[in-house]
């Protein structure tokens, strides 16, 4: 099928596992890049990670692995062998981008760190992803989404209320956010190469990305501003923009940001004449200085408890107040607006299972995206890729027997 894909012509070699870097490569693949994923004989850990999340992990039904690896050519190569390393170097010689999250000390041992190969491949964009970056004492420390992105930056501890259990985010949420940023940086490097003809090294880390994503809280928690985290339930910055429980136990986000303009609306809607009569409630600043934000927030909560979330949905809509009922993951795949935006790929698995797998969250007018592709078994494209490199059937068979490559069982 001929498609108009914006990244067509780019060639990517991926030496990576688990989520963030494979998602980056998947994004590039979706929009036209040819991605060859080099998988070790032991396999990517993510192939079996679905078990932790009550998901199947069979070759023909592995939605978690498919999410991160759709559209790639997957080969199995033992890079500890001479033949395997030669295959890898041949792949690099044809690549525009090399993507890896292998720890730098391991790449150095294999002589495929940036400094070791930049002169041999001067136009290669070398993109490295790590937990804690490539500077400082923790360069080679293993880092994960839940550790480097969430716990280290304060996100897990300070996005809750005092005394609460730490925030336990969705699996790979920080990985996926960072992958989107990493993709943008890599494409900047592609544009830069068009100008200079030279490749470069692109790096990011979960720690740096977690700091970036939590930038506002990290700024206003500094001593010169003094916001205290975690935030008490009844001490929001603006009581008119907060989460409130309704009478049916569901939560409503009420997000009216111009207190001065809309104060009379809140007087009427929430039966709250004190907003007009109490000078301490004249502005958010006076409300804060007077220490009355908790009382205002409790009054708002009392009012929200008088109606169900559906009733508040109607009331707030009629008064054009920005709002949203708290959703639940079990319903998101059925969200009418998400479906209207084509937010999911419908993927058919064995036994008549159809799974809604979230798709990249952007559209490019005039361009298309590759259809979702299930990844299948390890090494499914090994023979195809090696033949493209010029290897004969006899050479491929010999390397399979020696263990330099995996057996193609596609």
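Sequence proposed for the structure above (410 residues):
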């Amino acid at each position: 099928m001929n498609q108009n894909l914006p990244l067509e012509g780019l060639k990517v070699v991926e030496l990576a596992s688990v989520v963030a870097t494979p998602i980056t490569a998947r994004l590039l693949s979706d929009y036209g890049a040819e991605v060859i994923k080099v998988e070790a004989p032991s396999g990517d850990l993510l192939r079996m990670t679905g078990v932790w999340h009550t998901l199947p992990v069979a070759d023909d039904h592995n939605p978690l692995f498919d999410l991160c690896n759709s559209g790639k050519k997957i080969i199995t190569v033992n890079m500890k062998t001479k033949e395997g390393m030669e295959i890898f170097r041949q792949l690099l010689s044809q690549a525009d981008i090399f993507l890896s999250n292998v720890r730098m000390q391991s790449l150095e041992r294999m002589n495929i760190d940036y400094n070791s190969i930049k002169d041999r491949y001067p136009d290669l964009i070398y993109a490295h992803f790590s937990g804690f970056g490539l500077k400082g004492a923790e360069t080679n420390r293993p880092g994960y989404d839940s550790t480097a992105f969430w716990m280290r930056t304060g996100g897990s501890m300070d996005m809750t209320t005092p005394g609460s259990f730490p925030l336990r985010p969705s699996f790979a949420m920080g990985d996926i956010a960072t992958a989107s940023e990493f993709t943008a940086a890599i494409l900047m490097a592609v544009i830069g190469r068009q100008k200079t003809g030279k490749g470069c090294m692109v790096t990011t880390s979960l720690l740096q990305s977690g700091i970036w994503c939590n930038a506002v809280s990290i700024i206003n928690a500094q001593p010169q501003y003094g916001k205290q985290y975690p935030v008490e339930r009844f001490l929001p910055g603006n009581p008119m923009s907060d989460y409130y429980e309704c009478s049916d136990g569901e939560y409503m986000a009420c997000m009216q940001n111009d207190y001065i303009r809309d104060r009379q609306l809140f007087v009427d809607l929430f039966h709250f004449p004190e907003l007009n009569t109490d000078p301490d409630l004249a502005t958010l600043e006076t409300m804060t200085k007077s220490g009355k934000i908790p009382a205002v927030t409790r009054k708002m909560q009392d009012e929200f408890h008088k109606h169900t979330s559906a009733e508040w949905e109607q009331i707030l809509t009629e008064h054009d107040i920005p709002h949203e009922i708290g959703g639940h993951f079990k319903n998101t795949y059925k969200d009418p607006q998400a479906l209207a935006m084509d937010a999911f790929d419908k993927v058919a698995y064995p036994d008549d299972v159809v799974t809604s797998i979230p798709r990249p969250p952007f559209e490019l007018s005039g361009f298309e995206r590759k259809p979702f592709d299930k990844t299948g078994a390890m090494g499914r494209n090994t023979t195809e890729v090696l033949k493209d490199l010029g290897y004969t059937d006899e050479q491929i068979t010999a390397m399979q027997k020696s263990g330099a490559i995996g057996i193609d069982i596609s």
